[in-house]
């Protein structure tokens, strides 16, 4: 009876729900804030990881989806639709099941990780692979929801942002104040918008004494906000953030400027280096896009932009199991042995 109840029940007074709202939840949120020892040593700061891969469908999207599906149910929707690079669709598919709704998902053909496709399939979503990128999928999803009886659950739906802001609440509740710096990967820019909203709400009500500087990182091949222009053909191995025209672009700029932060880019090589460091040295397995936050922190630290002694939170947005190809690629093949202890001990270097 002491289980975490999900973000709507835990933060009910700060979310747009009423007593009669039919809450659709998988008990999302309440995710671990894990001290990062190696990152703290490297930066001279107190670095924490907000491990959002611990959510029910393996990404932070569940925080927004519990709100979006709850609201859709309240409004009597029978079907929901989203465009996705994979995690939103996995989450929408799962929460639609809980709500007894049909889900339709539009994904860029050939550009979503296998685990995410598996989730949408097993939850019974109607999946269309669109011959285009995420931005094309979102255009199509908007058009369909405008003209047909289907509710849009992308983060352009403002209740998604409301749900996602609860991650900032959890961090302040845990640390006793906001961190000095909060670092995030940026794709469609909904999450940086949501965290900033959460932090400013808590600061405005005096629950936090300060607000953090917001640092966002895009993948170099998909960095429209850094470039200041739409990227027509975005590319990166971090498929979750392969987005060339973020829907919440203006809100991301506001979060950056109001917080005194910045939005920069990291290369795929830097992303993979951080991905491996997180797994091999912090014990936290994330998907490549999630490692963009940590890659960005390391890049900033190496450039001398991180003063020691600060409290820093990096959100790692999705579980490594979503996209295990990158864990296996380039790793040595495990050695095969017979059922023989002496041989096994020798191969393990124990003998
Ligand atoms: N990290 C992961 C693992 C994601 O799946 C996403 C976005 C982001 C970071 C970026 O967050 O878009 O709010 O700036 N994934 C969306 C999707 C686009 O369809 O699953 P953002």
TrEMBL record:
<dbReference type="InterPro" id="IPR000634">
    <property type="entry name" value="Ser/Thr_deHydtase_PyrdxlP-BS"/>
</dbReference>
<dbReference type="Pfam" id="PF00291">
    <property type="entry name" value="PALP"/>
</dbReference>
<comment type="function">
    <text>Catalyzes the gamma-elimination of phosphate from L-phosphohomoserine and the beta-addition of water to produce L-threonine.</text>
</comment>
<feature type="domain" description="Tryptophan synthase beta chain-like PALP">
    <location>
        <begin position="24"/>
        <end position="318"/>
    </location>
</feature>
<dbReference type="GO" id="GO:0030170">
    <property type="term" value="F:pyridoxal phosphate binding"/>
</dbReference>
<keyword id="KW-0456">Lyase</keyword>
<dbReference type="InterPro" id="IPR036052">
    <property type="entry name" value="TrpB-like_PALP_sf"/>
</dbReference>
<dbReference type="InterPro" id="IPR050147">
    <property type="entry name" value="Ser/Thr_Dehydratase"/>
</dbReference>
<feature type="binding site">
    <location>
        <position position="317"/>
    </location>
    <ligand>
        <name>pyridoxal 5'-phosphate</name>
    </ligand>
</feature>
<feature type="binding site">
    <location>
        <begin position="187"/>
        <end position="191"/>
    </location>
    <ligand>
        <name>pyridoxal 5'-phosphate</name>
    </ligand>
</feature>
<dbReference type="GO" id="GO:0003941">
    <property type="term" value="F:L-serine ammonia-lyase activity"/>
</dbReference>
<feature type="modified residue" description="N6-(pyridoxal phosphate)lysine">
    <location>
        <position position="61"/>
    </location>
</feature>
<dbReference type="GO" id="GO:0006565">
    <property type="term" value="P:L-serine catabolic process"/>
</dbReference>
<dbReference type="GO" id="GO:0004794">
    <property type="term" value="F:threonine deaminase activity"/>
</dbReference>
<comment type="similarity">
    <text>Belongs to the threonine synthase family.</text>
</comment>
<protein>
    <recommendedName>
        <fullName>Threonine synthase</fullName>
        <ecNumber>4.2.3.1</ecNumber>
    </recommendedName>
</protein>
<dbReference type="InterPro" id="IPR004450">
    <property type="entry name" value="Thr_synthase-like"/>
</dbReference>
<dbReference type="InterPro" id="IPR026260">
    <property type="entry name" value="Thr_Synthase_bac/arc"/>
</dbReference>
<keyword id="KW-0663">Pyridoxal phosphate</keyword>
<dbReference type="GO" id="GO:0009097">
    <property type="term" value="P:isoleucine biosynthetic process"/>
</dbReference>
<keyword id="KW-0791">Threonine biosynthesis</keyword>
<dbReference type="GO" id="GO:0009088">
    <property type="term" value="P:threonine biosynthetic process"/>
</dbReference>
<feature type="binding site">
    <location>
        <position position="87"/>
    </location>
    <ligand>
        <name>pyridoxal 5'-phosphate</name>
    </ligand>
</feature>
<keyword id="KW-0028">Amino-acid biosynthesis</keyword>
<dbReference type="InterPro" id="IPR001926">
    <property type="entry name" value="TrpB-like_PALP"/>
</dbReference>
<dbReference type="GO" id="GO:0004795">
    <property type="term" value="F:threonine synthase activity"/>
</dbReference>
<comment type="pathway">
    <text>Amino-acid biosynthesis; L-threonine biosynthesis; L-threonine from L-aspartate: step 5/5.</text>
</comment>
<dbReference type="GO" id="GO:0006567">
    <property type="term" value="P:L-threonine catabolic process"/>
</dbReference>
